[in-house]
Amino acid sequence: MKIGIVCYPTFGGSGVVATELGKALAKEGHQVHFITYSQPSRLDFLNENLFYHEVEFRSYPLFEYPPYELALASKMVSVVKNEGLDLLHVHYAIPHASAAYMAKQILKTHGIYIPVVTTLHGTDITLVGKDASYEPVVTFSINQSDGVTSVSEDLKRETYYSFKITNEIEVIPNFIDLEKFKKQKKDHFKKAICPHGEALIVHTSNFRKVKRVMDVVQVFNNIHKEIPSKLLMIGDGPERQPAEALARELGINDAVRFLGKLEAVEEVLSVADLFLMPSEKESFGLAALEAMACEVPVISSNTGGLPELNVQGVTGFMSNVGDVEDMTRKALFILDKDNLPQFKANALARAREFDITNILPLYEKYYERVLEKAHALKGLQTS
Ligand code: GMT
Predict the structure, then answer these.
(1) What is the pLDDT of residues 350-364, one digit of tens each?
(2) Is the CB of 96 under 6 A from ligand 1?
(3) Which of 19, 155, 224, 271 is the most buried (most CB within 10 A)?
(4) Which residues contact 36 (CB under 8 A, 6 or more apart)?
């Protein structure tokens, strides 16, 4: 198949999923064309089946906001035509699904029918999409897609609940490349961070409000009162400064390190004992899956799709959003030396269920179904 992939090319989970999916499809022999405004950060290897088309949007003194969506739709039109794509797969509804709809309509006037698959990732539905300023466009473009997938059952439910959706939504969960995300021997690093054998706790996110980064610091503060421990905070965003200030205020700044954005997160996860994800909302929790693949148990909130990943009392524990005390109790239970090895093993076993080799065929089969349906429809229209 020749597949066009549209995504946000940055560090966010949706961009990571889209890029890793494209790379895996290319390895399987499909031709994959990324259509993005900059090179996706995980598009880090060479393959004869991988192509990258940059969406250029020029500014003009009249525009306060450059029209990204129009430039994207135009680029989709030219790539579909020139490369003879079979299908467009757009990740994150806003504004990718509506830009794809526009491209599809333009291509129709050229006698080309391009099926569009939209993948819903989370905040495009649970936070931004619901907002009245976007809702009609989001509803319309989901309903106009030839296929719609969501990354968890919970996100599917939430989408049906919040929008008037007439389309079927297929759940295809996030996945992990176990070749990349695996426990590596990084003893020297662990020794440098935890010279006295302290427990190492890790959090990674984009430090937006929805991640409840302050809860991470509070939970760690409680753990730190009980056992020798260190906290590594990976990523950057609006809540980083307040979190740094809180760590100083609590007097634990020597035990907490803010590392900023990191490419090789798996190296840090390799030496971690516990991962914290106390999010307000989380449609799946890819960062937690990455931790589990590196044998790190997870303390998370019980929101969104997290119960579909983190198995209570097995791979870690879940607590109500904001219940810092409960998270602390459960974290200390996991970190007990008699309990930790089993939790680590369980986390890895669970991560294996989301191995990319299990999930990739689900996408391939779904594309085939969408293409069959589109061809049948085309046949009906021309007969
Ligand atoms: O977590 C984020 O804020 C980034 C966001 C994104 O859209 O890039 O992640 C969302 O998509 C990921 C991949 O499907 C999911 O694993 C995350 O759970 C989801 N984030 C939220 O729902 C907050």
Answers:
(1) 999 999 999 999 999
(2) no
(3) 155
(4) 6, 7, 8, 9, 52, 53, 54, 55
